[in-house]
Automatic annotation (TrEMBL):
Organism of derivation: Dyadobacter flavalbus
Domain of life where this protein originates: Bacteria
Lineage of origin: Bacteria, Pseudomonadati, Bacteroidota, Cytophagia, Cytophagales
Annotated protein name in UniProt: Relaxase/mobilization nuclease domain-containing protein
Pfam family membership, one: Relaxase
Domain (MobA/VirD2-like nuclease): residue spans on this chain: 17-151
Length: 424
């Protein structure tokens, strides 16, 4: 099982994302945890209002929405009851067992997975710290759930997927060693990965310090549909002795690649593998205005997706390719849609990773965290919990302006000094 945690300040946008999947028939709300009604009896507004009423308890914390996806191995056949039970166990493990949460089973990818929408604002107005939540609580809980429910272990799967290592440039001076190293990479990439152009093939090969060279436009290699394979150094420059495709026993020639391109194009057209990449990008950028391109690339990489960018001399992005190491599929950004192309991603990401909004959010989170660590306990009304204090209907009704703002969360007024004395 792989858990991916996203946080934001836009609850409605996150909920709409899952509800849109539900309307399209690609998802189902299978559980409503700490709600007064079952999931199938709730309207969109009731789902939204229940969590919004909790957000209203703490106006100062801006990052107040938590969106988690739990991803399982394609070989696992998990029913709705099992997925709901696993989701509940996961929330308990990360300290969210008392939070209102909605669980959606998504059916738009090649593997079983659920999305959980919840909040880190507690019923007493304090907040659950999100610092290192994924690294600490989530990772520990994931491993426990894998054992308790007999799931495929993420670390075992990761070892199987990434056994291919980059070619070492130490082989650059020996043709036999270079050929052997390149052959190891080609044998796995050509058999397992799905690509439809030389550019997409090179996007994968370059990850392992190998390049397929078809020559310049008027070169002899291009004229005779030839192809050379080369080793790259850490800067992407060609080094060592080039090897002709015909020198390899499995003949990775240009003609053979064209057959691969056609077969792979049919597979990619019929499969839903592209949805995993698009969903990962959308979830990372959903409701956020402070994600830079490097940050997006880093988050996708943690989800098993490498991003290859192409920039001009001015440093402007003009091309982008996504390599999904889990589905073994390669996608040019423009084929996924305009919003996933180089231009679309540039418009959706910010230039400055340390935006003013992010800095303010961090400062506000620190202020509230310091207040909590000082031993302040925030109570609503007479100190009873929200569930005990309100009727079932009021829990699902909209929040009114000025409602549920705990006084301890407001800034205390500075006392006016009545007088002063001077000492000599």
């Amino acid at each position: 099982m792989v858990a991916v945690i996203h946080t934001s300040s836009r609850l409605r946008a996150v909920l709409q994302y899952n509800e849109k999947k539900l309307e399209q028939g690609h998802a189902e709300c299978i559980s409503a945890i700490n709600y007064p009604k079952d999931a199938d009896a709730l309207s969109f507004d009731q789902k939204l209002n229940r969590i919004q009423r909790q957000l209203a308890l703490n106006k100062r914390t801006k990052v107040n929405t938590v969106h988690v996806s739990l991803n399982f191995d394609p070989s696992e056949k998990l029913g709705k009851e099992q997925l709901a039970e696993i989701s509940k166990a996961y929330l308990k493990g990360i300290g969210f067992e008392k939070q209102p949460a909605l669980v959606y089973e998504h059916r738009d990818a090649g593997h079983p997975h659920v999305h959980i929408v919840t909040t880190n604002i507690k019923a007493d107005g304090s907040r659950i710290s999100l610092h290192n939540l994924g690294k600490n609580q989530s990772e520990k809980t994931r491993k426990e759930i894998e054992i308790d429910f007999g799931l495929v272990k993420a670390q075992d799967r990761k070892v199987q997927e990434f056994t291919l290592k980059p070619v070492s440039v130490k082989a650059e001076y020996g043709k036999s060693e270079t050929k052997k190293a390149i052959a190891n990479v080609l044998d796995i990439v050509l058999k397992e990965y799905k690509f439809t152009t030389i550019g997409e093939l090179n996007a994968v090969l370059n990850q392992f310090n190998v390049a397929a060279d078809i020559g310049s436009e008027h070169s002899r290699i291009r004229k005779h549909n030839g192809i050379l394979y080369r080793v790259l150094d850490k800067d992407g420059k060609r080094v060592g002795v080039p090897i002709k495709a015909s020198d390899f026993h499995f003949k990775p020639t240009y003609r053979h690649l064209q057959v691969c391109f056609q077969a792979n194009e049919m597979h990619l057209t019929c499969s839903k593998d592209s949805l995993r990449v698009k969903n990962s990008i959308d979830l990372t950028l959903l409701g956020k205005h402070n994600v830079s391109l490097p940050k997006l690339i880093n988050i996708l990489q943690k989800d098993g997706i490498d991003t290859v960018t192409r920039k001009n001399e001015e440093g402007l992005l003009y091309g982008i390719t996504y390599i999904d190491h889990r589905t073994k599929c390669v996608f040019n950004g423009s084929t996924l849609g305009k919003q996933y192309s180089a231009k679309g991603i540039t418009e959706r990401c910010i230039e400055d990773p340390f935006s003013l909004h992010q800095q303010k959010s961090q400062k506000i989170g620190m202020d509230v965290g310091q207040a909590a660590s000082a031993g302040n306990v925030y109570l609503v009304g007479n100190g009873s919990s929200l569930e005990n204090d309100k009727s079932l209907d009021s829990l699902l009704s909209p929040v009114k302006d000025g409602e549920y703002i705990p006084n301890p969360l407001k800034k205390p007024k500075r006392k006016k000094q009545k007088g002063f004395s001077m000492g000599f």
